[in-house]
Recover the amino acids of this structure.
């Protein structure tokens, strides 16, 4: 299909519908509806894919964290932002394009992201999207959808500026920004010239450089004025809705189709917001006065094209309603653990077998090369850990220490002189003064790690070992990976009381990756290992480079749910579990949030930071 | 009364009851939310002297109870602050109590149960605390680290009072009063401060404390613009992380234009 023109001709539209739906679309067309024909070319336009590549503007990724923080401060609750084009929301997450529209201009692009996020967040906060009947109605009625969205923009502009006066300037600036205000119906751009006069006042203040409307714009002008005047946040959604309905009737009568939206406004995607599409569509029909016959048919067709709905992430707490099964019998070298099957809602008993093995020793020299390459980092880490170390502290007032405790000796002389018999505790000695912490470092050895990254992981472990040695807490370093549930290998890189001798160095300097990541099993096993330690403080530090994943039965949300439960269980037993991740996947943080909990992991975007950051994460934990 | 304190809940009443019943009190809350100020206020209200000890790692039991000193050939016993507080029937306030080593804290155990006594082994003496004597400790539970937690046997000896930042109006009043800035500035600062608290554990360890807002207000009262004052307190003093710095700057822009 060629690029749609404004307005599309009925013949074009008719052809498009027939091409798309074949003969059974005749039923729709027989009941011909001018509006739907107008809309058709836009509805069926292929998405042009998410923005990216050389022709895109500033990427979202580096701005994500500060953007989320800024939004959280504005609304007083955590806000999650993820990439998807065009901007939209599912009611929980704010989706923004992975890159701003080209050309890249940092300040403008940040403005674009800021305002696009404010719009989506505002739609959620205003409560408009919480009105299920309305959302369901918008699912089939594009004119209503566009009218609601445009009027909501006016309301949101006022609302944000009232709460945060500086934001008025952002909205003003974005209106003058061509690339942010490109007009679109659905995913297709439409030209500004030739815009029906009835629409024009809707863009007042949102998009600069539109010809002022003629007399035919009165209705839209009134609607905008009414929405802007509605300052009570509870009343505003109702005003928006009422005015949108009025506009919709008028626009339909005049056969205008839906008014286009400026790009920064994004898109409302009803299907992302409805939990039970069929039921809510049915409910929404109560709103409609006309015969739903042909619409229902089209709705059904459209629904078939919708992506399968995502299963909600299970809440670990909610899952633990099923009591944890007792541990199965183990033989000497292998251990069996249950696994949570989120799909079935029950525990799989004896689901996995974990074996403790010794990691293979590679050639000598790798450890030394890593030390050579990271001298700076090692020095830094040693300094950092030295201030925390447990040994080499003087314990004063000992009866059998190695050195004279001068302060105490003087005090004892005083006591003697005063006629008391002092205790003979005027010596001091070195001790572990702080309570020791058992530290288990677990390195993900699965196949997701290759080449350069694998090397940096090894280097990071080498640097960390130097820090751990200075620190003096008992520690062990294991790697983990598996092939299916029966072959989970917990590979010793450095055991608890092992010296860093040639053998250990060869394991640490050369470990290789392969296999998958059945994380839950390894966290359960790690917890068991830690619980056998005599120290009462226990830390598990997981170094990961990808989300948990194995064969069928341990993928996607199921893998996340089981891993999250394993972490939860370890924490309940008093183990401090923390993760450092270099997962480059765009939804990595979502997975990390689910498994380790927000704020309980460190997500590195730059892999070369790993050696220092891994060590820092540990400092944080044992301080 | 000369100490200025704006109550945020029933803390005054609970404290008075605890004092009357001779129960020790534990104050928890984020930094700069008025814990120390509250203790000073209560000491004055109850007419008791206040002895404050700032706890740190090197604090020893003798630092608390006292020791013999040689003074020109004579030996003299010097009471530590805890002993002094017991003798005077004062309120003894151990600030940031988790910083002290757990074994040192056990010296307050007999004072904080029904014995209410302080054995001074060195002097072969056992002080019995007068009714007015009271132990108050404070700590900030916000940052959990593995080695810094109160022992259960210490924690469970206290009646605890949880503190948080005052509500918006009260806090604006406090900031205006303490810093001498005008009401409108105080309100703006409180709004900004409260916004930053949403980032606790989501990028910031703590949001802006009331204390920090008082500083900002004082800078404005001394002639700085609101923006400059906010920049050097609400941005600079909260984080070094460049991304959070950017978010905080953007917040200032959103609020102040
Ligand atoms: N409720 C309040 N009434 C009066 N002033 C308050 C109140 N809360 C906070 N302040 C102001 O905040 C400042 C900081 O309070 P304070 O020193 O008591 O904090 P804190 O909780 O002891 O902090 P930290 O844990 O860092 O020691 C006080 O000097 C005072 O100006
Ligand atoms: Mg204090």
């Amino acid at each position: 299909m060629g690029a749609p023109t404004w307005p599309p001709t009925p013949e074009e539209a008719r052809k498009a519908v027939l091409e798309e739906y074949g003969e059974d679309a005749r039923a729709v067309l027989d009941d011909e509806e001018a509006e739907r024909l107008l809309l058709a070319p836009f509805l069926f336009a292929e998405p042009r894919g998410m923005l990216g590549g050389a022709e895109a503007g500033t990427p979202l990724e580096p701005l994500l964290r500060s953007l989320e923080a800024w939004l959280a401060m504005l609304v007083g609750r955590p806000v999650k932002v993820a990439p998807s084009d065009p901007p939209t929301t599912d009611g929980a997450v704010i989706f923004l394009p992975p890159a701003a529209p080209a050309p890249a201009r940092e300040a403008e692009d940040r403005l674009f992201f800021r305002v696009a996020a404010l719009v989506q967040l505002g739609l959620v906060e205003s409560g408009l999207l919480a009105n299920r009947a309305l959302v369901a109605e918008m699912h089939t009625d594009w004119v209503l959808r566009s009218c609601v969205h445009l009027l909501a923009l006016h309301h949101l502009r006022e609302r944000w500026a009232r709460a945060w006066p500086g934001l008025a300037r952002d909205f003003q600036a974005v209106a003058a920004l061509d690339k942010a205000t490109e007009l679109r119906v659905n995913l297709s751009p439409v030209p500004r010239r030739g815009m029906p006069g009835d629409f024009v006042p809707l863009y007042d203040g949102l998009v600069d450089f539109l010809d002022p409307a003629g007399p035919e714009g009165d209705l839209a002008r009134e609607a905008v004025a009414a929405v802007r005047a509605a300052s009570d946040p509870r009343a505003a959604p109702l005003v928006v809705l009422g005015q949108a309905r009025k506009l919709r009737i008028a626009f339909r009568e005049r056969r205008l189709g839906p008014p286009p939206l400026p790009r920064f406004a994004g898109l409302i995607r009803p299907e992302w917001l409805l939990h039970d599409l069929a039921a809510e569509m049915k409910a929404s029909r109560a709103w409609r006065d006309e015969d739903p016959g042909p619409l229902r048919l089209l709705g059904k067709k459209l629904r078939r094209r919708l992506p399968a709905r995502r299963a909600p992430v299970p809440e670990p707490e909610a899952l633990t309603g099923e009591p944890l099964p007792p541990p199965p019998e183990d033989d000497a070298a292998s251990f069996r653990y249950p696994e949570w099957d989120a799909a079935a809602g029950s525990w799989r008993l004896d689901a996995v077998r974990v074996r403790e093995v010794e990691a293979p020793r590679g050639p000598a020299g790798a450890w030394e090369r890593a030390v050579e390459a990271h001298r700076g980092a090692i020095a830094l880490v040693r300094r950092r850990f030295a201030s925390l170390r447990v040994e080499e502290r003087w314990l004063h007032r000992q009866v059998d220490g190695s050195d004279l405790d001068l302060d105490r000796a003087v005090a004892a002389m005083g006591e003697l002189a005063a006629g008391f018999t002092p205790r003979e505790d005027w010596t001091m000695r070195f001790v572990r003064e702080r309570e020791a912490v058992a530290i288990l470092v677990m390195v993900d050895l699965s196949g997701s790690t290759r080449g350069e990254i694998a090397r940096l992981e090894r280097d990071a472990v080498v640097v960390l070992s130097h820090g751990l040695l200075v620190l003096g807490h008992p520690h062990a370093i294991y790697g983990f990976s598996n092939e299916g549930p029966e072959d989970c290998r917990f590979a010793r890189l450095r055991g608890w009381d092992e010296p860093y001798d040639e053998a250990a160095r060869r394991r640490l300097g050369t470990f290789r990756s392969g296999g998958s990541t059945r994380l839950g099993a390894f966290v359960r096993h790690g917890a068991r290992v830690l619980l056998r330690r005599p120290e009462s403080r226990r830390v598990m530090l997981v170094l990961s480079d990808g989300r948990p994943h194995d064969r069928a039965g341990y993928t996607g949300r199921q893998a996340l749910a089981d891993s999250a439960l394993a972490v939860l269980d370890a924490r309940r037993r008093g183990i401090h579990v923390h993760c450092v991740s270099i997962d480059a996947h765009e939804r990595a943080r979502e997975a990390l949030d689910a498994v380790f909990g927000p704020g309980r992991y460190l997500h590195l975007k730059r892999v070369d930071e790993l050696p220092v950051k891994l060590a820092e994460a540990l400092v944080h934990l044992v301080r | 009364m000369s100490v200025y304190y704006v109550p945020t809940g029933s803390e005054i009443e609970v404290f008075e009851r605890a004092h009357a019943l001779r129960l020790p009190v534990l104050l928890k809350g984020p930094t700069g939310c008025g814990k120390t100020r509250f203790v000073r206020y209560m000491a004055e209200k109850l007419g008791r002297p206040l002895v404050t000890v700032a706890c740190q790692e090197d604090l020893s039991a003798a630092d608390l109870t006292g020791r013999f000193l040689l003074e020109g050939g004579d030996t003299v016993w010097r009471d530590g602050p805890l002993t002094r507080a017991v003798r005077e029937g004062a309120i003894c306030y151990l600030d940031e109590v988790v910083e002290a080593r757990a074994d040192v804290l056990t010296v307050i155990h007999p004072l904080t149960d029904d014995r209410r006594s302080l054995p001074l082994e060195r002097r072969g003496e056992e002080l019995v605390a007068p009714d007015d004597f009271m132990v108050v400790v404070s700590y900030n539970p916000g940052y959990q680290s593995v080695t810094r937690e109160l022992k259960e046997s210490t924690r469970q000896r206290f009646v605890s009072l949880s503190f948080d930042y005052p509500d918006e109006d009260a806090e604006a009043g406090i900031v205006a009063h303490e810093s001498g800035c005008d009401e409108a500035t105080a309100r703006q600062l409180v709004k900004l401060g409260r916004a930053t608290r949403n980032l606790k554990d989501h990028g910031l360890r703590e949001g802006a404390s009331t204390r920090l807002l008082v500083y900002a207000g004082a800078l404005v009262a001394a002639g700085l613009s609101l923006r400059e004052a906010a920049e050097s307190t609400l941005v600079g003093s909260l984080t070094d992380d460049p991304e959070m710095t950017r978010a905080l700057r953007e917040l200032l822009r959103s609020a102040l234009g």
User: Anything to note?
Assistant: Residues B 35-36, 95 surround magnesium ion (ligand 2) (CB under 6 Å). Chain B has a mean pLDDT of 91. The first helix of chain B runs from residue 11 to 20. Chain B is about 40% helix and 15% strand.
